[in-house]
Each structure stands twice: as structure tokens, then as C-alpha cells.
Design brief:
This protein is of the alpha+beta class. It is about 25% helix and about 30% strand. It has two domains: about 35 residues; about 60 residues, no CATH class. The chain is built from one helix and five strands. The strands form two sheets. The protein has a three-stranded mixed sheet, with no helix packed on it. The longest helix is centred in the first third of the chain and has 27 residues.
Length: about 110
């Protein structure tokens, strides 16, 4: 008799744990919210053209590592804000191959 009660209690505890996990999973998927909690994510990066020893370098300023010629993040379903500053002494234009995205011709001191 004690063994049967013990088995019943263990089964009840396991069913409770599984039900609790299922409820947490259901709620965690956003199925009980009255508003959407998913905002469109934004990627903001700033780069600048700089003349160093007669050579043009693209310098990362914000959102990138601050290294010369930084890798820019490209993701789908993101709002992507790229600011390009011309700190050089001549006109420059940034062209991103593959995306066919480009800036206008930037005069020294301009940004886009």
C-alpha cells in the first residue's frame, strides 16, 4: 500500500513539473500578451573617411570596432542606420558592393 501511494505521489509531482514547463513555454512564446513585445531592432554604425599619410582610410567611429577599414554588420529584418562622415580633404563616396548601396558624393566635412 505504501509503495502504491509513493508511486502515485511521484507521478503527480512529475505531471506537475511537466505541466509547469508547458505553461512557461506557452507564455514565453508570447501567446498571452495583449501587445507585441517585439520591436524592430536597429543597427547604428558610423564610419569616417580620413586621410592618413596621403592614403584614404575608412575609420570606424561608432558601432564598429574603431579599426581602419571596419567590417560593417549586415542583417536582414533590421533597421540599418549607417552614417558616413568625410573628415578628409577631398570628395569621397562610400559604395557597398553586393548591396548596391552608395552615398552621395561627400564634400570635406559633410556627412550622410
Amino acid at each position: 500500500m505504501i509503495s502504491k501511494d509513493k508511486t502515485l505521489i511521484i507521478i503527480a509531482i512529475l505531471v506537475g513539473i511537466v505541466a509547469f514547463a508547458a505553461i512557461i513555454g506557452f507564455i514565453g512564446q508570447g501567446n498571452v500578451r495583449h501587445v507585441s513585445i517585439f520591436w524592430q531592432e536597429r543597427v547604428e554604425q558610423t564610419v569616417a573617411f580620413e586621410d592618413v599619410d596621403g592614403q584614404v582610410h575608412l575609420q570606424g567611429i561608432s558601432g564598429v570596432g574603431g579599426e581602419p577599414n571596419p567590417y560593417l554588420i549586415t542583417r536582414t529584418n533590421f533597421a540599418y542606420i549607417l552614417t558616413v562622415i568625410n573628415n578628409g580633404t577631398t570628395q569621397h563616396r562610400l559604395y557597398i558592393e553586393g548591396l548596391n548601396a552608395r552615398t552621395d558624393l561627400l564634400e570635406p566635412g559633410q556627412q550622410e
